[in-house]
Amino acid sequence: MAELLLAAPSEAAMGKYYDKLATAGKGPGVKVEQIGGVFGKGLFADKNFSEGELVLREPMLVGAQHENNKADALVCSLCFRYVGTLELQIGRRLIPKLDGTDKYHDQDDTGSHSGGEEGSDMDFTEDDEDRCGCDGKPKKNKTISMELVNSLLKGELHLPDSERFLLSPITNCPGGCSEDVYCSDVCADEAWRAYHSLLCTGPNSLCVNKTALVKFKDHARDTNDIFLVAAQVIAGTLIRARNLASELAKTSTAKGKGEAREARDILLEAWEPFAMGHKKVWWEAVALPDDVDPSQGDAFREQFKELANESLTNLKEAIYDEEYSSLFDLEVYGQIIGMFELNNLEIVVPSPMEDYFIHIDELPLDRRADAAKITRSFLDALGSEYATYCSGTGFFALQSCVNHSCRPNAKAFKRDEDKDGAAILLATRNIRKGEEITISYIDENRSLEERQGMLADYGFTCSCPRCVEESSMKIFSSRSLAGMLQP
Ligand SMILES: C[S@@+](CC[C@H](N)C(=O)[O-])C[C@H]1O[C@@H](n2cnc3c(N)ncnc32)[C@H](O)[C@@H]1O
């Protein structure tokens, strides 16, 4: 039965799925159509768009904040909106810097910022000891006390004007785990219903083996956090299949009809959103790095397969369901991650700290001096990465259909009002109804050779009109040159 999940969907099935999305009001103004050949399907304008206009705003189907970004940004696990208070966000970032557990940032990064007054009447610790930097030179590191950071975390210390930068209060996970927090009951309930009830490590978790689930998560954090997103696909499909089965059982009993639909058909229906992104398995989809000898390609790919197998073994122990056993097939798991490899969007949500410190910097002089007495030391202690963005990866139903062009007509871009992880596409020029919407996956201001090299990492050779034109011009000019050189 795994073969059914691995099969590419028919054009009819795709048409039905994307029509369903359109009917549900997802992506108004755009539609998915088959192009064929190397392009497969693409996203098309269903109305005229003006330059700068919003073409698409779409929440992710599955996604996760990167593990190495979690200390930098406390965000809603479902929509990636910053939560808590500005004080909490700053305090959380300072703890690892102060207790030396910061694995991901330069410990000697003291930064230097304008707008502050020297000195402060707060209880700051000026640590002026000489420290040895990795360049061998002594560095002067200015820091603040843990006591002060704790008062930020406890909400006892309010930063000036922070009430102008209110974030959504934290909603805890309904399952009681401490790993995930939300910006509202709506997000908490939606995540719970969509996949988290099976992936929660809290007391109300519905997984079958919590020890195995913890092991699965630890393995993912230590190796590749994409496994956490793949688990959302498996858990989500399982939950949808079970819900469909119980709905069908109810209706067939009520109507006195015979057997309910087979588990096979139910699973296929539940799998639908991910069947559409059908691609290669992970170990075939990954690009071979330059430093790997092509003769070692098979061994390199085998390592990915082995890693996926380790991960799946733990996940299977944690949430296995015999009825839908094919969901736990290694090739299916590999295909989900391969689909992410080729389709996922790197999600970025700007930090409210950036706006906050800019705000302080732009206060009228008299107020700025007072405010900076408090904020300056925090800013210095945070260092130059004071406003590191929230970053993660997500899979989107419509955005994942957008093809690349080296002469694109849209771009992924967050506007000031976009405070969550939704995919945003803006028109970079006027787009007529019926035109394909394209973005550039790379820096398109490069030469043909450089662009093709960069796109090789995405696993394809670009056939966009610009590449076709430039390639044919290159062939033409090399032929002319060859003609001129003929005796
Ligand atoms: C994010 S998906 C876009 C949707 C895809 N066309 C589909 O049918 O699912 C990216 C894939 O589309 C194809 N593709 C996108 N842009 C292309 C281009 N300019 N030239 C050739 N293939 C392209 C490649 O197969 C690539 O891996």
From TrEMBL:
Cross-referenced InterPro entries: ATXR2-like (IPR044237), SET_dom (IPR001214), SET_dom_sf (IPR046341)
Pfam families: SET
Region spans: Disordered: 101-132
All copies of domain SET, residue ranges: 28-442
Biased composition (Basic and acidic residues): 101-111
Biased composition (Acidic residues): 118-130
PROSITE patterns: SET
Gene3D superfamilies: SET domain
Entries under PANTHER family matching the protein: HISTONE-LYSINE N-METHYLTRANSFERASE ATXR2, SET DOMAIN-CONTAINING PROTEIN
UniProt-recorded name of the protein: SET domain-containing protein
Species this chain originates from: Riccia fluitans
